[in-house]
Write a structure and sequence with these properties.
By secondary structure, this protein is an alpha+beta fold. Helices cover about 35% and strands about 20% of the residues. A five-stranded mixed beta sheet has the order 2-1-3-4-5. The longest helix is centred in the N-terminal third of the chain and has 15 residues.
Length: about 180
């Protein structure tokens, strides 16, 4: 699929066009052109280090989503993307190059166009990494919090004074 088509699909999902979507499109373009296939279940895993707009492009173009458990967010504030293919047992890391988008004089539209005019190899430092993907998504039992009564994943329940409570209730007590 060409960049323009990928951009259109990602923009429809995301809701607007922006530099972040363009960055995510180039991540997806590289991945799809280098032996990784779009994920219908958990065949492909994306571990991202940002929560910016680029992640929406990965969700729609690569099929990596929070709901399926094959999109993992590490909140490091970096435009780094680790992609794992369980099918081919390949893994790659794409890290945004600082020098490519350092011009503060570019308008938003100029940044988008500059990104889309690049090949992924010009925008990212790309390297193969060890195939060590996160575990498959776990389905866990939900239990009621003994304070607020809301159902909470069993693995997220906190023990406090002989009560099983959810994280928000625990935090409220500890204030």
């Amino acid at each position: 699929m060409e960049t323009r088509e990928l951009m259109k699909k990602a923009t429809i999902f995301h809701g607007h066009i922006c530099p972040g979507i363009a960055i995510g499109v180039l991540v997806a373009k590289y991945v799809l052109e280098h032996g990784f296939e779009r994920s219908s279940d958990e065949e492909l895993v994306a571990v991202v280090e940002t929560d910016n707009c680029s992640v929406d492009a990965l969700q729609t173009l690569l099929g990596t989503t929070y709901g399926k458990g094959n999109l993992i967010h590490n909140d490091y504030g970096k435009n780094n993307y680790k992609i794992y293919s369980r099918k081919s047992q390949k893994a790659v890391n794409l890290a945004l190059k600082a020098s490519v988008l350092d011009s503060k004089k570019l308008s938003r539209d100029e940044k988008i166009q500059k990104i889309l005019d690049l090949e992924p190899e010009e925008l990212f430092d790309i390297r193969e990494i060890e195939f060590d993907p996160p575990i498959l998504a776990q389905i866990e039992e939900s239990v009621p919090c003994e304070m607020c009564g809301e159902l909470t994943m069993d693995s997220r329940i906190m023990g406090y004074q002989d009560r099983n409570i959810c994280i928000p209730c625990y935090k409220a007590i500890k204030k």
